[in-house]
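User: Here's a chain of 387 residues. Predict its fold as tokens.
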Amino acid sequence: MPRSVLLAMTLALTPALLTTACAAAPDPAADAARSPAQWPFTATASGQFNEPWAMAFLPDGSLLVTEKAGTLVRFDPATGKRGEIRGVPAVAYGGQGGFGDVIVHPQFASNGLVYYSYAEDGDDDTRGAAVARAKLELDADGGGQLADAQVIWRQTPKVTGRGHYGHRLAFGPDGKLWITSSDRQKFDPAQDMGGNLGKIIRLNDDGSVPADNPFAAQGSPADQVWSLGHRNALGIAFDADGRLWEHEMGPKGGDELNLIQRGGNYGYPIVSDGDHYDGRDIPDHATRPDFIAPVVTWRQVISPAGFIIYNGALFPQWQGSGFIGGLSSKALVRVAFDGDTAHEAERFDMGQRIREVEQGPDGAIWLLEDQKDGQGGRLLKLTPKAG
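Assistant: Prediction complete.
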């Protein structure tokens, strides 16, 4: 199946991931994944959480961790002390829905603002993602509260079902707030500018719409949109040159890494390098060059979740590399970038579904295991292996 870039593997000198996720053929990338004995790092468990979804570091080195059922935890990795942050909204918990991402404002030290996403109920058995901001007030017992909370964005329209919320958050070099709004498993809304599903959203930090957004002249909600034609976007990160990269769970055999362009249309559900789960074909990207094709396609899917582009000093050999958590692949995937191109460079077998990836203040890489069927849920700190 043609695609813009074939995935090159550093460890396996063969083209990777050329068969569907459910095929019987072995996965070369999985076979080449580095086992714990081959890791260049040590993974130290620092805590255990209940269905963790996201984390963000505070200036004091403690972590905010979201738990999907609707809890926000403050955790001190140095002491293991944890406390609950009060004032979390009621969440629509179930399926892929619940409490989602959490990030801090770039000027958190002076304004104390945190931003968080969650699934909320609507009328007539509908749901949608929401993003709120609040002032984080910490207490001496290790917990705190969210004060003066304000919802600054919502998915529209709310629809039935409990899948594909997306709602990953990031602040860009431009100081704007970026939100992934997935297609909610409804397909066509990703191409419909009358709603904001299946889009990448760009807002000012107060939720207002920047005047220079590409579709600003079309009015709400199109004015929020930076790019469209996305399926289930679960990771966004900016590289050192200000380029925005996004990964998303594609359909069967079609996970993607995309370079996001202003006003770009990424084609879903009209085109994809994967196919529908019921076996129906989706035309490949090569059939429609008017849509923007992925930079990387994983035909043997990794089920991507969480994303950083590393810039720390603890792993100097990895500066500028992307790190993606793998759910079904139970892996940490390293991506190497070269300008506008990218490829998978290596993969580490973590033995558990990886939901979230973050860089710590000292340059350590932190992972949150997904929790499924009672397995996982640990917070892991990756540091260079001695010697």
